[in-house]
Design brief:
393 residues
Amino acid sequence: MNNFEIRELPGKGRAMIALKNFTTDEVIFEEEPFVSRQFSWNVAYGYAACDHCMRPLETVLENVRRLASDPQVEVPLLQHDPTAQWVAQFTQCPRCKVRYCSEDCLMEAQKRYHRVACMGAFRSDDTHPINVLNETWKKMHYPPETGSIMLIVRLMALYQQSTKKAEFLEQLQSFQSLIVNREQKIYHKMLGENFEQQMEQLYLAFCNAFSGEEFSMFKTPDAFKTLMAILGTNSQGIATSVLSQWVVKVSDLPLPDSEKAQLDTVIDGLYAKVGEFAGEFLNNEGSGLYLLQSKINHSCVPNACSTFPYSNDIIVLKALAPIQQGDEICISYLDECMLERSRHSRHKVLRENYVFICQCPKCRAQASDPDETSDESEDDDEMDDYDDNDDMN
């Protein structure tokens, strides 16, 4: 039994409401994704992750040497490598050679979607319609990535292989309630100034990739736009990293102060080396759709946060502060740095990325603050085009 419920709030829409008191750091729920997928460019650049759950498929030494582009880099304390326990379980699809972290993930993928999604030898064929669709997307959406057309490709495989198609469509439809009449802004954010032309190119490539009659309900222009809008507004970013896992593990070791200081210096040096070559792109990155997590509203003073403690795509919602029975459970759609910026700047990011006006307690309390500060006065023209009648959150 869940300790929360999804409820419609007047003037706000659906919300997650606590049915019990939660203490700080208490787990509210854990959830596997409805669907998840690694980003297209992330895959192309060799970031090795399980094709089903996104668990890293590199040892920490392999990871650091690849990210630093230096085969001579050494990493200490390899007995604490978080991938070591999984290496013996790594496996792959015998037909297409897609890699998985375990036989369990391979079997689950086969059970849910991979039986029809497996491309076999065509996986390396650049002319295959699925690969053409992916390359069309990659030419429109360069890193840093926020989504991938391949998430929609996996959705189609899930639908095709599902034995309960009505239930699948009902679940998929539950992601749509927040995107009505907002598609133009969503597409512009994902694809840029030429989004109308690019949407047409993607649509044609999508129809070519899914030419079967069973996909007909998804191949109307409006249906495809709805799928793209779901991708743009409801997908949750996922990041896994064997390096960051290793850092957490070794940082918690009970070492003397002198050795801990030496370890900190080593860690700083490793991050400097990988940063010189890989820059900010250190993680396996992708996105997923989560049936429960997607129902949680934003607040600039969140009382909960989404975490990925298992280094895969399972999301864990934890309380950031005490939550009382009857309270709305809220997360932040913004990172910590953005939360500290002005109301004007927060609203700008939320409008551009999620297409709503935040009316949380912090935003209401700052309603009389200046529209912008001296360091936040650039690139605000887009705000003038925003429709103030859009929903509030």
